Amino acid sequence: MRRSLVKKAAVLMSAAMVLTGCSGTAGESGRGKTRAQAEQDGKQQDREDVIVVMGPNSEPEAGFDPAYGWGAGEHVHEPLIQSTLTVTNKDLTIGYDLATDMKVSSDGLIWTVTIRDDVLFTDGERLTAKDVAFTYNTLKNTSSVNDFTMLKEAVAKDGSTVEFHMERPYSIWPYTMAIVGIVPEHAYGAGYGSNPIGSGRYKLAQWDRGQQVILEANPDYYGEAPKMKKVTILFMDEDGAYAAVRSGQVDLAYTAASYSDQTLPGYQLLSFETVDNRGFNLPTVPAGETSESGTPIGNDFTSDVRVRRAINLAINREEMIEDVLNGYGSPAYSVCDKMPWYNSEAEIAYAPDQAAALLDEAGWTMGVEGCREKDGKQAGFTLMYPASDSVRQALAANTANQLKNLGIAVKTEGVGWDTAYDRAESQPLIWGWGAHTPMELYNIYHTDADTGLAGYSPYKNERVDQYMDEALASGDLEESYELWKKAQWDGETGITQDGDIPWIWLANIDHLYWSRENLKVADQKLHPHGHGWSIVNNVDQWSWK
């Protein structure tokens, strides 16, 4: 059974813990806290600052430059320091930030965006359409994280109007505009990432590499003034984050399910829903082929659709979430669960008997040692996971145990990313995905023109490709959602259980945080992949109570 969204930490300390304190007693605090803790709590509601802990991988290596991962890349978030043209609303539809109007030509090749005329960069210079055009043209040529192949050029028509001329129709362009921070043409160059000038809610006050980032409210921000005037981000590993919470030195810190049974005086455990999913690919073509670089392609066992469907039915996701994630997660059935373009036809019930029947039908009969066999071969495969990821390791082990009951022998293996991509062409690998854009579907399932197969695992379905191509070419963003749904399942074919099922999705992992009891964290959007900056998307709206 899934645990409650907010789990209150215990506020009473045991006598043993009290004895270990250097000063103060339970009687002095009244709540089992030290006098210092009690005094600190009494001051919280007057604060206008917050201290947040993220993992070391959340620190932007290249700084706060949109061209090199700030706001985009694997861990998508609002850039805070820079403004964006659009934003994603809580229901993941599109809203406006700098933009005041947006329209697209009938052929889908020109997007016209009107922007606010009252926006200043933090150096006092006005933000104009020229800065917008400069940003996009620069990122098209330099970005290491965003795909701008669909953009021909951006053109400033006047001070408040910018046109995006596209190489091809691209209906989901508003989602790209929601993650691209606008930089000043007059102040952009080498070193910008370390000393960014923007127009967002905050400005960079200090960056101590490997340690912390300090953001301060932008006094000239055009929107509602941030409630939190100062935001300090510390970068620590899980153990360090937990220790910082135990000592009461921070206000909010990321944590893992393995710590969720702990109780910490003065803190509560917050859990936020995500589309940060984990799942594994199943190569859909037989073994025997190789790529141009010599990489083996295909798997004889998983190439049978009946086998893939059986595996999907044989996974008890609720049990997996309870055993591996301590209850903090939700079953995953696709890469886009809960999104506006999600097709609920992907959902299935745990059905081991049906799974066994499918394997029987496919000719895989139970052998003497509890493993199915066919033509002298054993049913099974190697399930890889990133060697440094303990959660994916546990998910792999749980999957292996569950499939063993079905008569499928699964060997788990930790691998490095230097070899994982190539090996996934022939063996399943546990991946992490999840983004606020339908392109996640496209990137995983659409055929690559160069190889004739999908990008991350051997798969091809021309009708699925067609639906996604039509969705991108649609002149209406919301209407395109229906085409994305058809790519998943149209009643005859698709990527769901009754279709090709080339991927098995296991769980959407809740993002967990220790938070001071009197810190009011604003309502969160569904978090994407990456347990990091998403939490502070709306830190300007947080408050103390």
Automatic annotation (TrEMBL):
Keyword list (alphabetical) reads:
Signal, Transport
* CDD domains named in the record: PBP2_NikA_DppA_OppA_like_19
Query: Where in this chain does the record put each Solute-binding protein family domain?
Result: 96-446
Signal peptide range in chain numbering: 1-26
Record carries keyword Oxidoreductase: no
| Region entry Disordered, spans | 23-46
Task: Output the Gene Ontology cellular-component terms.
Answer: ATP-binding cassette (ABC) transporter complex; periplasmic space
A single Gene Ontology MF term assigned here is: peptide transmembrane transporter activity
Locate the compositionally biased regions of type Basic and acidic residues. Answer: 36-46
Q: Which PANTHER family match?
A: OLIGOPEPTIDE-BINDING PROTEIN APPA, PERIPLASMIC BINDING COMPONENT OF ABC TRANSPORTER
Similarity-based family: Belongs to the bacterial solute-binding protein 5 family.
Q: What is this protein called?
A: ABC transporter substrate-binding protein
